[in-house]
Design a protein that fits this description.
Elements lengths: L27 E5 L9 E4 L2 H8 L8 H11 L6 E5 L19 H7 L10 E3 L9 E6 L2 H4 E7 L10 E3 L11 E3 L8 E6 L3 E6 L17 E5 L14 H5 L7 E8 L19 E9 L14 H8 L3 E3 L20 E2 L15 E2 L8 E2 L5 E2 L14 E4 L11 H8 L12 E3 L10 H18 L3 E4 L12 H13 L7 E4 L2 E6 L4 E6 L1 H14 L8 H4 L7 E2 L5 H9 L2 E2 L1 E4 L3 E4 L15 H18 L9 H20 L3 E7 L7 H5 L6 E6 L19 H4 L4
Parallel strand pairs: 1-3, 1-20, 20-21, 21-22, 22-26
Antiparallel strand pairs: 2-3, 4-14, 5-12, 5-19, 6-11, 7-10, 8-9, 8-11, 9-10, 12-13, 15-16, 17-18, 23-24, 23-25, 27-28, 29-30
Helix pairs in contact: 2-10, 8-9, 13-14
Length: 700
């Protein structure tokens, strides 16, 4: 409070309405091999459609589908999943040369944005064989876009003919669209060309039909770019170039298409010509690095494609033709005129003057004097260019080390909220008890470091899939987790579920850790995190046709003693998570999922609220504020059945002089957690007619 200088009313506001904030509890995380997508970078997806759009479809190689469907199954219960694609031997498809990996947009900007001449103009947006299906076509001027009479026929051609004699076959390129002045306006696509002939087929006809009418000798041939019908007009000179005297003919059109049908799913024509597989179009891009739209955003083709394309990166300037990608403004010198100096434009002191040989100048939109040097033209590429990408590679055999590096992206608790970490493929990079232990040890270390989330693990695949004996399967599952570390931050399940893979039209067995973690999300939505995610009320698994292993009662007893939660198919009642244990080996309240998650919520919410006490004084006022903040929150949790009782201590008993002098504050929060029912005992007592119930109740 400032010192008052004279009588008056001084107004202050004191805010005592601070509350303990809500904290997220349903954010999942997973790492593994995927078909495409950024490498070693965190991407958040909200639906299975988002997962497919960014990371591609499930693949059978090295059981990659297990990771995909673990993620997809989790998204049945939650709308937030953070995904990291492992870096393995994958590479991006390129135009030519030796391929390499571009991990993500940041990697591109730091290492490739200034050009990579050894691989041509284009690269697939992300690594993998999927990029080998991409084709890119550029139309760089009006002539390439359309020629009304490029040449003529040199012989009469009959109906059905596919090889046409022409006066100059070099005027055509494969994929050009041509017509021969037919009355009904038939259009054809060029499939081959040499000096004196072109081979054609009826446009967009997969059967390769030829001429639809007889063509006379010397018929004028009209030629168009194969994608002309996707654009309103031919590329020309942009308004920016015209208004700022930055040359002429700077515009290009770009089309990205699916040459093999692998991305769009459209069937490919037998001769490999255009299908209905255009992926994206870019109209009126500029070859001028400084090119701007009327709204002021960059239309330089390399920038525009980087910012908006979902499929390709620009890798190198096109070197064909004249002045491709160079801003020819005639900047020959910069002259600083003194006040009163004469330059023909009345410049004052500090003006930057750029003069051409004639001494004329023009001021650009940034106030710098620029000029055109002799009407420089950007004209290039008299015919359209087509580039089909190649040499992209997949590698789904992710090593344990690569998997660990990928999961390390989730280590930072301050910048990244994560509640549920999915183990993905059971056993991680292998399919043995040993690789299971390696995978579990790595994930346990991660969650024990974070201490604000829970990891979910399934057994390795061959422990239950294809095992006919339930006794053997039980032993395999127990052995799979026997050597795994003890931790209350880890949860084990027992089986794989069979589900339908709609992307490949097959049935597959997939790990259940995505479902187990997902049931926690479902529980949070219908109740609270401190309720158990198991049983017939909140533990029903979605999308399960059958289980690879359905344990009987005696086998469930074995599993539960080994810290493993059985998943059981009850006829007529569904597939149910039938346990709520954590992987903690010692008897404790924290050997149950609901208690562990209760404390995670309390710890995160209260620690977030406690930050507002930092840098305040450790006195009774601050301690009272702290108690008044925390106690209503805990009473609310108690009212919602999360805890039986609690006590908050923040006074001079735990905040002694020594504590205060160390610039510390201590708040002790005592919690009696609610416990889930795991065992029900029903005593049916037969009582003689003449005996009062009061005489026997309580005796058994």
């Amino acid at each position: 409070m400032s010192f008052l200088k004279s009588p008056g009313v001084h107004v202050r506001e004191i805010d005592l309405t601070t509350i303990v904030p809500s904290v997220p509890t349903t954010i999942g995380a997973i790492a593994g091999a995927f078909q495409k997508g950024p490498v070693n970078s965190i991407v958040t997806v909200g639906t299975e459609d988002d997962l497919v759009k960014v990371f591609g479809k499930p693949q059978g190689d090295s059981n990659q589908f297990e990771t995909f469907f673990t993620a997809a199954n989790f998204l049945q219960y939650s709308d937030q999943l953070k995904v990291v694609r492992c870096e393995s031997g994958v590479t991006n498809a390129i135009a030519s040369g030796t391929s390499f990996i571009i991990r993500d947009d940041d990697h591109y900007e730091s290492s490739f944005a200034n050009g990579q001449a050894s691989v041509g103009e284009w690269a697939a947006r992300t690594a993998g064989e999927w990029g080998n299906s991409i084709g890119v076509s550029i139309c760089a001027n009006a002539t390439a876009f359309e020629e009304t009479a490029v040449t003529t026929t040199s012989a009469e051609e009959a109906i059905g003919q596919t090889i046409i004699s022409v006066t100059d076959g070099t005027a055509f390129t494969i994929h050009d669209i041509v017509n021969f002045g037919e009355a009904r306006g038939f259009e054809y696509q060029v499939t081959a060309a040499d000096a004196s002939t072109i081979t054609i087929k009826l446009k967009d006809d997969p059967n390769g039909a030829g001429l639809q009418s007889t063509i006379a000798t010397a018929t004028s041939i009209r030629r168009r770019w194969r994608f002309y019908d996707l654009f309103d007009e031919a590329p020309g000179t942009s308004d920016f170039a015209t208004q700022n005297q930055r040359g002429t003919q700077d515009e290009i059109h770009v089309v990205v298409y699916d040459q093999l049908g692998e991305i769009s799913g459209f069937a490919v024509e037998s001769n490999g010509n255009r299908t209905n597989a255009v992926l994206e179009t870019f109209a009126n891009l500029s070859k001028n690095p400084n090119g701007k739209s009327p709204q002021g955003d960059s239309v330089y083709y390399a920038d525009k494609i980087f910012r908006t394309s979902n499929f390709v990166y620009w890798m190198d300037h096109n070197t064909t033709g004249t002045n491709w990608g160079t801003d020819f403004t005639g900047e020959t010198s910069e002259i600083v005129m003194e006040d009163g100096g004469t330059d023909g434009a009345g410049a004052n002191a500090g003006d930057n003057i750029v003069l051409d040989a004639t001494g004329t100048s023009n001021e650009d939109e940034n106030g710098k004097i620029q000029l055109e040097a002799g009407g420089t033209s950007y004209a290039a590429l008299d015919t359209p260019t087509t580039t089909n990408l190649k040499n992209g590679t997949d590698d789904y055999a992710v090593t344990a080390g690569e998997l660990e590096i990928a999961y390390d992206n989730f280590e930072d608790t301050e910048s990244l909220d994560v509640n549920l970490i999915l183990g993905g493929r059971g056993g991680g990079a292998g399919d043995t008890a040993s690789t299971q232990d390696t995978h579990a040890t790595m994930l346990t270390a991660l969650v024990e470091t974070r201490r604000d989330c829970v990891a979910f693990l399934s057994p390795y695949r061959s422990a239950t899939v294809g095992v006919s004996s339930s006794i053997t399967a039980t032993e395999n599952v127990v052995d799979a987790f026997d050597l795994c570390p003890s931790s209350s931050y880890v949860v084990f399940d027992s089986s794989y579920k069979q589900m339908y893979d709609k992307y490949n039209d097959v049935f597959r067995f997939v790990p259940m850790n995505g479902d187990t973690a997902g049931l926690c999300c479902f529980t949070d939505n219908v109740a609270d995190p401190w309720f158990s995610p198991a049983g017939f009320n909140r533990g029903i698994v979605r999308g399960a046709i059958k289980l690879s292993y359905n344990p009987k009662k005696s086998e469930r007893d074995q599993l539960y003693r080994a810290r493993i939660n059985p998943v059981v198919d009850f006829p007529g009642q569904g597939v149910v998570l039938f346990g709520d244990k954590t992987a903690l080996a010692k008897p404790s309240a924290f050997d149950r999922i609901n208690v562990r998650r209760l404390f995670l919520v309390l710890e995160k919410a209260i620690s977030t609220a406690a930050k507002f006490s930092l840098f305040e004084f450790n006195d009774e006022f601050t301690r009272a504020q702290f108690r008044n903040l925390i106690e209503p929150f805990l009473r609310d949790v108690q009212g919602r059945r999360g805890i039986f009782d609690f006590r908050v201590v923040a006074d001079d008993t735990n905040n002694t002089g020594e504590v205060i002098d160390r610039n510390e504050f201590i708040g002790d929060i005592y919690i009696k957690p609610a416990r889930s029912i795991n065992f029900i005992t029903l005593n049916f007592v037969a009582v003689r007619t003449g005996v009062e119930f009061s005489e026997v109740v309580g005796q058994f």
